[in-house]
Amino acid sequence: MSWDNLAFVAFPYISLTTFTVGHAYRYIADPFHWNSRSSEILEKDRLQYASVLFHYGIVFTFLGHFAGLLVPQSFLTSLGITPAIHMRIAVFSGMIFGLSALVGAGLLLRRRLKHIRVFRHSSKNDVATIGLLTFVIALGTYNVFFSHCNVLDTVAPWIRSILILSPDPGLMASVPFTYRLHIVAALALLGLSPFSRLIHIWSVPVPYLFRSHIVFRKRQAE
Ligand code: HEM
Fold this sequence. Notes:
Helix content is about 65%, strand content about 0%. The protein is mainly alpha-helical. The chain has one domain (about 5-210): Transmembrane di-heme cytochromes, Chain C (Fumarate Reductase Cytochrome B subunit, Up-down Bundle), CATH 1.20.950.20. The site of protoporphyrin IX containing FE (HEM) has 21 residues, from helix 2, helix 4 and helix 6. The site of protoporphyrin IX containing FE has 21 residues, from helix 2, helix 4 and helix 6.
């Protein structure tokens, strides 16, 4: 098997299978540890701005990846979004949100390694997860700023070919090394995520936005 077949056919399916089966297994077998394992109680000041920068950046970057890579360009063109406009939006938003996620992830990693109480309560899994996340985001942000590639005719149709079970690794042949590494590292993170604190992503507290207010009142003197 060639390296391209391994990286862009076998590995994506291994990663997606581990991702799906792993989440189902973890949800059923280990429901009481399904949380973000927040370290806020150990240190709050640095976490506040690092976590906010990171989460805004990563959530919008995720949405951008979905909209930009999974929706076929022919559909976007029918809405008046030409490939040139699509690329301009992708690069501009990637620069802003990618940078925000990168600075936030770097600060979270630094806090985890340098703050003694946080470090002592961190598992190897915690450090590896934030380390790998920072690596994936750093490569993605580097690509947006310095290594341009026509992803609409290469990476985007390749991802769709994987999802419709008709993989075409040939589409990845002309893609630069830093994009390929970003994709392989992101697939590794995807496969490992059910066994890390990243499971909390699937517990977006949407009902929180719609629940009625809780009214706190002072106890009246009798
Ligand atoms: C879907 C919306 C999300 C919600 C509501 C959410 C919520 C939270 C909460 C409450 C914490 C614990 C407090 C904190 O550290 O800030 C946390 C931590 C964390 N989240 Fe999220 N998160 C979301 C999405 C994501 C995504 C998409 C990623 C990465 C792919 C991510 C990665 C992390 C990491 C690595 C930590 C640990 C930070 C640390 O303590 O060093 N989160 N998240």
